[in-house]
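Hi support team,

I submitted a single chain yesterday and got back a structure, but I'm not sure I'm reading the token output correctly. Could someone confirm the output below corresponds to the sequence I sent? I've pasted both exactly as they appear in my results page.

Thanks,
R.
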Amino acid sequence: HSFCTLLVFLTQLTTMSQRPTSARAGAAARRPSAGRPSTADVGGRPSTAAASRGDGGAASRMTVAVRVRPPNRADPDEAQVVVEADPLAPNTVRVDDGRRGRNFAFDHVFTGGQAEVFETMGRPMVEEALKGFNVCLFAYGQTGSGKTHSIQGGEGPDAEGLVPRFVREMFRAAQARVDADADLTVKVTMSYLEVYMERVRDLLAPRARGQEPESLELHEVNRRVVAKGASVHSVLGPERAQELMAVGNANRQTAETRMNEVSSRSHSIVQFTVSQLHEAVDRRDTECTVTLVDLAGSERQGKTESSGVQLEEAKKINQSLLVLGRALNSFSDGRGDMVSLRDSKLTRLLSDCFGGNAKTWMLATVSPTAFNVTESLSTLDYATHAKNITNRVTVNARERQKALAELRATVAQLNVAVDLERDEVDELRTVALSLENENAQLEALVVNGADDGDTHGAMLVAREHAVADQLERLLQSLDAPPASAAADASFRSPGGTTRRRHVRLRGGFSLAPVFDEPTATLTVKLDGGSECDLSGPVTATVQLSRTTDDGDSGSDDGIDAPDGAVRWCAHIRSVTVPADFGGRRVSVALLYALDLDCAYESEVLVPACGPAAPPQTVTVDAAHRFYIPAAAGDEATQWCRENPVMVVEVSGCVPCHD
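Hi R., thanks for writing in. Yes, this is the structure output for that exact sequence:
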């Protein structure tokens, strides 16, 4: 009971937090709000997908199609058909069970076979992928509604699913491009993952008999969420891709239920990376990601009659689908920057597919009979919300082109600077030549005994000195070090090169000081271990406060807390750092003790100083608000008294002292 109570508290602590001033994903404090995103992600911070929408790019609305499977032996014999494509209204699904009638309009409603699904959805995806756009397809629906059949297919050429047809067409179109362009090379790699019981696993990793597959951690790399350690396989043709697919499908978690003989117990995600490379550096290379998702079906325990492990699997499946549904609803009504994508591993992996940089297709599958009409209506509502999601998409140029463009811009700037310097040198040479001529004339006057020879001689000396000063200033400007070098002069090594290293220090604190008083101010000492080796200590001043929500307080802090809940606020007011950080930006973050990826971060500039300067105190503005629900009880309260709940982190670059 104590563990469950604590779990409730920690869940509320993470999910109900207020949106911070800035957020991060990973270790780099300067990453965009996507993520470290600000993509995305923690508590109420903006998601990676939401961050990428600010990058510009063309608007691309999600394409949504619905497929109504025919009745099969899983349906009760007496079940009435109540869901069908409306013959009078194109691309419309009609639901009429005698008590209610509703129409749902979509981009496509399929009534034919597997070929129709591919021609309508798969072929356009191939075309967009080879243009350099990220593309995504995910299939959603109740268990037993035909998702996996539509995606993977069955026995026989006519039953072949969308994915094998897509793979074959992708390689055919890529080969056609290579044949038409001798300068082009196309490379394809593949990964195959599953999300099972909120654990990400590699379906293509070698497995020992009886050994539990390794769970993979999710990280953000170049503003994309990836599974660290997932195997990546080069694919030279559709046959190799099909072999890998067969291996992954065999490793995927499935089980027989009352609703489905081969029920998927996990969400599967196939990812292809397609790179198009040219020999000529002035041609644009592209690299796109193709994401094909087969979601596990939502389940009702009363219908599937699952128990034991299958019941726990169903709970995790329904939980991740619920979070995905909330994300779709949020993005569909324009509130995508407020959704938490870290609540589920599935939504984190798919963060680019809705609201992000990807052209996305959704295939919703429904059952036709009255026995499943409630689940079918839920799926159709789900798909209706998805229609309103708009992504911002751009062609994915490879880093080589970006680096080439940056180098060309730098060369252009340097050429302008060189031209300016050359003009100044030419001007000074002209002045020097003029003075030489004037000097020769004055010397002639002196030799000829002119009365004003001394005056002209003095003028000559003054002018020569002026020219010498101008030439000296010019030479100094050409040899001057960068402006940033002045701040680092005291930390230079004998060779003249400044070497720096990145350090991170942390210190935790509990909520004990404010259980008896409404406010308290703490001094938290931070430690980074022996490897930090700083010239002085690092401390942070944290202000804690609490209030009890009586339902009438009218709090406007953005937290929807229940009556009687205890609200908390942790606010970093300042940090004191040694001279090692002088002249550098320092990242100050407030983190959860049990999830150090969660951060509410601020960045401050420490004034420049010498190596012997005293410690400096700089003002910080990093605050976080949260609450403990009344249901948490004394166990959660006692835990917060005795354990570090929050952690202060200070990180930055300092000079090497050796």
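A quick pointer for reading it: The longest helix spans residues 399-447. Let us know if anything else looks off.

Best,
Support desk
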